[in-house]
Write a structure and sequence with these properties.
Layout: H1 2-21, H2 27-43, E1 49-53, H3 59-74, E2 97-102, H4 107-119, E3 127-131, E4 137-138, E5 144-151, H5 154-165, E6 169-174, H6 194-207, H7 212-230, E7 234-239, E8 249-254, H8 261-274, E9 286-287, H9 292-300, H10 304-307
């Protein structure tokens, strides 16, 4: 354990030096993102494909890649296993890959990518950044959906995206709301509507008079966890240190071991009820599956320059 702790400390030091050298990462973001990545990697060490959604400058993606890279090189006792699929990569032998998706790739993402690749050259071909709306994403059970500070109803969008496809989920929600005019609609599998959730929030505020602002976050996240559990997910909640961020809950949802047709049908009803069936398909599709073809495609459309040619 002492060796493991020492290795983790060395990795944090290296990543912190690289991130800080770019001049675009603040101390708060460094600490909270690294802490979130630590929980995500600990929950899903076997998952070799991850998506950093609404990625911003993609700091989470690099931390998840580096943790897997460091572990693979530090541990020679990896279990040997075979795969029955010809297209899906072997999770025990292949390194992790991560695709970032956001509507715009900021210049800060380029700065961080350049610095990380300079320090960890082996990670270059394992990372991609696709400029696109999240409606273009094609989730897959072999890929974990992640997002740090998934603002407002984005967290609910990602919960539904995971349930529809049986993908695992790791999110840090923020900017919670129960206002319907802000787009809030609890998932049909929660068994509640927005008005019922709002009533629970008011009741909770009476019990938490000294922390009324936390009541909304607590109730909304409880509804999200209930939704995932009702969909058959194994759900775990962990907390980032409050010194790093006030919005510090991490929701970790492990996908069901097998597809559930009933759950899938209910989710489709939810989309029809909410009128969220797209009238126009997105210009591109972003496949998240952990197979060579999907990974290669994401690389082919990765970056700000290639975004113009999609």
């Amino acid at each position: 354990h002492s060796h493991s702790n020492s290795s983790a400390s060395l990795l944090f030091d290296e990543l912190a030096l690289v991130a800080c050298s770019t001049g675009v990462v603040c101390r708060k973001e460094l600490l909270e993102t690294y802490a979130a990545a630590t929980f995500i990697h600990a929950k899903f060490p076997h998952m070799k494909r991850m998506a950093d959604l609404a990625a911003g400058h993609g700091l989470l993606s690099w931390f998840l890649l580096a943790m897997d890279h460091y572990e693979m090189n530090d541990d020679d006792d990896t279990n040997d296993s075979s795969s029955s699929s010809s297209s899906t990569r072997s999770s025990s032998k292949e390194p992790r890959t991560v695709v970032c998706v956001d509507r715009r790739m900021p210049s800060s993402a380029d700065a961080i990518a350049t610095a990380m690749i300079h320090r960890f050259p082996a990670l270059e071909q394992r990372w991609s950044y696709v400029e696109s709306d999240l409606s273009a994403v094609v989730p897959h059970p072999s890929c974990v959906l992640t997002s740090v500070h998934a603002c407002g109803t984005l967290s609910d969008f990602l919960v539904d995206m995971a349930i529809r496809t049986g993908a695992s989920l790791a999110i840090v929600p923020c900017c919670h709301t129960v206002k319907e005019q802000m787009g809030y609609r609890p998932h049909v599998l929660s068994g509640m509507d927005a008005e019922e959730v709002a009533i629970l929030v008011e009741e909770r505020k009476k019990k938490q008079e000294n922390a009324k602002h936390e009541a909304v976050a607590d109730v909304v996240d409880e509804v999200r966890c209930r939704t995932l559990r009702n969909a058959g997910y194994d759900v775990e909640e962990v907390m980032l240190p409050e010194e790093f961020t006030a919005r510090n809950r991490v929701i970790l949802g492990e996908r069901p071991t097998r597809a559930d047709g009933v759950v899938e049908a209910k989710s489709q009803q939810f989309f029809q009820r909410q009128g969220k069936v797209a009238t126009m398909p997105p210009l591109i599709r972003i496949p998240l599956a952990d197979d060579h073809e999907s990974i290669a495609y994401c690389h082919a459309v990765s970056g700000r320059v290639r975004a113009a040619t999609k």
